Amino acid sequence: MTVAPNLVALANSLADAARPIVARYFRTPVAIDDKSDASPVTIADREAETAMRALLTKHVPEHGVFGEEHGAERTDAEYVWVLDPIDGTKAFITGLPIFGTLIALLRRGVPVLGVIDQPILGERWLGVEGQPSTLNGRPIAVRACPALEGAYMYSTAPIMFPGAFAKKHEALAQRVKLFRWGGDCYAYGLLAAGHVDLVVENDLKLYDFAALVPVISGAGGLITDWRGQPLDMHSDGSVLAAGDPTVHRAAIGILSGATPDATAVPRRPTG
Questions:
Q1: Are strands 152-155 and 178-181 parallel, antiparallel or unpaired?
Q2: Per the confidence metrics, is the pTM higher than 0.85?
Q3: Is 148-255 CATH 3.40.190.80?
Q4: Residue 90 has pLDDT above 50, yes or no
Q5: How far apart are CA 255 and CA 44, in angstroms?
């Protein structure tokens, strides 16, 4: 399926609309509210999503919209836009520029276009089904990594891995060459650009991962759930992104419980 050029242009326009709003509030004393799940939200989140939704209403009123801050409309439409104005709000409110605006377009529930926009650093990843992914307009590609023992891996926070999930995550983290906490959506951009080999997360919502799928795929990487299944609007929230298929298979084996736990391997520093 080919994504129409006007829809790609619209995705860029959405990011252009959100970027100055988010940047204006960065490292300022903005008020912070707690949502029902205790996650923080700011006026920057709300204003940025409002601006993007206004453009969608103007240009594609027949399309559906699913936003983190302002809810869902027409999600049974063939095309649905998925918006996360600030993915990584905790990084945003603490002045760390690793958050991003995530914009995805789903066709019949499957992500076909994705944008990761970092407003402060001026970096924009674009993924479009059937095309090479780009960073600020230049093609990017994942890097080869023939074994877990040579892989660089990121996950955002331990809270994503309760109970049995923590044991599986720890088993994988012990096997890689370098593991770091943090990153939010920025880590996926680094993977697509060939700087990171694995990003492993859990308990993500559609607006957290939909935009990442075309970006990673278009850079030659793989992004699935922990069972190796493609991500779509019905996924369970587990996410595994990898630059190399060999490392992806090995990680799936550990996360799905298909291989023995790696507790015998000496733990590597995570700082």
A1: parallel
A2: yes
A3: yes
A4: yes
A5: 36
